[in-house]
Amino acid sequence: MLLFHLGRNASCLTPNKENARCIPVKSCIVIIHAIQTGESNAIKFAQQSQCGYDSEPLVCCGTKGVPEVQKKEHHILENRAHSVIGRNSPCTTPNRENGRCIA
User: Fold this and answer.
1) Does the keyword Cytoplasm apply (predicted)?
2) CA–CA gap between residue 96 and residue 103 (Å, rounded)
């Protein structure tokens, strides 16, 4: 539940107590990665990060996500150190549907 509304680029505090900025969710890699895991604690973290709305959802975007998400992401990156996912490569959406990578 959003109890207050901050403007775009306003200073904010993440659920991890990190000083950050309130930016569009699509611009926040930390929140995008959290949502993509589909894990309930990561989704909750993303919801708790919401800080406003300015024609699109805004989130308090820091550099640290949910600790469990960071550990898994690091492990995945270690295992895929030599593989590169390119534009239009197959990938999975946050809803666990097959799709194509766009970035």
Assistant:
1) no
2) 18
For the chain, how many structural domains are there in total? 1
Summarised one tens digit per residue, pLDDT across range 69-82 is 444 555 555 555 44
How many CB atoms are closer than 10 A to CB 34? Answer: 26
Boundaries of domain holding 29: 11-100
Query: What angle is formed at CA 30 by the lines to CA 102 and CA 5, rounded to 5 degrees?
Result: 110
Q: Tell me, what CATH number does 94's domain have?
A: 3.30.1640
Task: Residue count of the chain, please give it.
Answer: 103
For the cut 70, the answer to whether the pLDDT of residue 68 exceeds it is: no
At residue 3, the 3 state secondary structure works out as coil
